[in-house]
Amino acid sequence: MKPLQIGVLDFSYISKLKSSRTASVSTPHEIFLLRDAIKALGHIPKTYKVEKCQLYFNNRRPEILYKNKPIKGCDVVIPRVSVSGDIDLEISIVKQFQMMGMPVINKYLPTGRAKNKLRTLQILTHRGIPVPRTLVVRKLEFLDDGIKKVGGYPVIIKAPYGSYGVGVAIVESRRSLYSALDIIWKSTSSSIILIQEYVAEAEGSDFRAYVIGDKVVASMQRIAQTGDFRSNLHYGGEAIKVHLSPEEQRLAVRASQALGLDVAGVDLLRTKNGPVVMEVNANPGFEGLMKVTGVDIPTEMVRYAVSVAHKQKSLQKEK
To answer: What's this model's pTM, rounded to 2 decimal places?
Structure first.
């Protein structure tokens, strides 16, 4: 079978530009792992750095130029969308690939949904998927009643955008509320705040399910470092390999599919009333999960991308 050209869309320059104007720009190791997996499976990797792409509207045809030359012949694209600000604007390039007829893993609209925590909650609850009690407010005068509605202190407060534990804080009492809000507001341009119940029985741990297509390919339990409530590995949290229950696996897949994602990192909490979905990540990191579980996630992702590309080619032949 003829090798496919598989594009990897690298947003690392944009994410570093947003976080630090003086940060050095380098390609994340996960991009290299994806490229290695593409080559190992007998296909041809094509890395596209977003800052070197130009969106070109040529009369009635949408195109993408890379270093001023048209991108052609790419069979499927895997975007690594590591941005948390100006979402719609920054991921417009993903939509441009779709408009050019290239299959994309994940697509523009599902990525935007997952990057917006408020929209994620709307979709999950509409589909009957359990989430922690959450109240969304804009004005300080509604905070006190809002905190009561989600069960009282301690509570988790979140910005509507953010990842890797950025824009999230635990508030133990009213006295610490406003200092926490000040930190949250400095990390985002939005005045919207999500107030979420603190699930005490989770004891500072959550479960990450890595979903590709219609199955969980790997999972781990993340445990917060002493003195912190965030279990993210970026904040020193520990991780251990776990086997999720069938109910938890079904819930993770349902959450991913509700948003329309091909690949997702679904974060679950175990509560006294059963598992709930805390967040859905459209650009889940996989390096830490690989070390914990031994699962070759880049290969799984590339195999899925290849199957999507072949499916589209078959549909085009039928037409």
So the answer is: 0.88
